[in-house]
Specification:
single chain, alpha/beta, Conserved hypothetical protein from pyrococcus furiosus pfu- 392566-001, ParB domain, 2 domains, 10 helices, 5 strands, disordered C terminus
Length: 209
């Protein structure tokens, strides 16, 4: 097994099963329901760092969606000004658009910014191909969300601020979850200073950086 395969085997992210359990299970636990929502009512996740390309793989997915529909529901959260924000499922949404489908099955879940950020990053890091720039911004977004959840300040480019109850820094916990070294996480985050972000504006972008 190569070092890359070893590292991928050690990744401990939120699994698809964790994100999308059965409708019955979700209804029982969280009173959630799967319902069809028009694509026009769903906006992309603000400052989503993962590119959704209309490449050959996407065209194949669109053809599959055209034939069989979207088999795994996407995850969205309600927006305060109406409509919904995509949390996990940007590729399925794009494939549906290419297939000419106007609505998509969705799990609607109430999530705060940090919860939504962590789920968005975890679900996309499981893709087969993730570029270094996508990882860099995703790691930074998740790390800052983890710090806020732990009640610590999210200082710009601070790789570690405070410790959790087990004496671990947020960057150490993130490194364990994604199968990278602590220093590699820091290098990725420093990379974000060399790459223009997708958006300099927006409430959450200001909070995360």
């Amino acid at each position: 097994m190569t070092a890359k395969e070893n590292r991928r085997a050690n990744i401990k992210l939120t699994t698809v099963d964790d994100l999308f359990t059965t409708e019955e299970g979700r209804n029982t636990q969280h009173k959630e329901q799967i319902k069809d929502i028009p694509l026009s009512d769903i906006s992309d996740f603000l400052d989503h760092p993962f590119k959704v390309k209309a490449d050959d793989a996407m065209l194949e997915m669109a053809e599959s969606v055209k034939q069989y529909g979207v088999l795994v529901p996407v995850l969205v959260r309600p927006k305060t000004d109406g409509g919904f924000e995509m949390v996990a499922g940007h590729r399925r949404k794009k494939a549906s658009e290419l297939a000419g489908i106007e609505s998509i099955p969705c799990i609607v879940r109430e999530l705060d910014d940090d919860q939504a950020t962590i789920i968005m990053v975890d679900s996309n890091l499981q893709r087969e191909h993730v570029s270094p720039s996508e990882k860099a911004f995703a790691y930074r977004m998740k790390l800052n969300a983890m710090k806020r959840q732990a009640g610590r300040p999210s200082k710009e480019n601070a790789a570690q601020v405070g410790q959790d109850i087990n004496g671990k820094y947020s960057v150490e916990i993130l490194a364990e979850q994604v199968g990278e070294s602590r220093n590699q996480i820091k290098r990725f985050i420093r990379l974000t200073e060399l790459i223009p972000p997708y958006s300099r504006n927006g409430r959450r972008q200001a909070n995360r950086i």
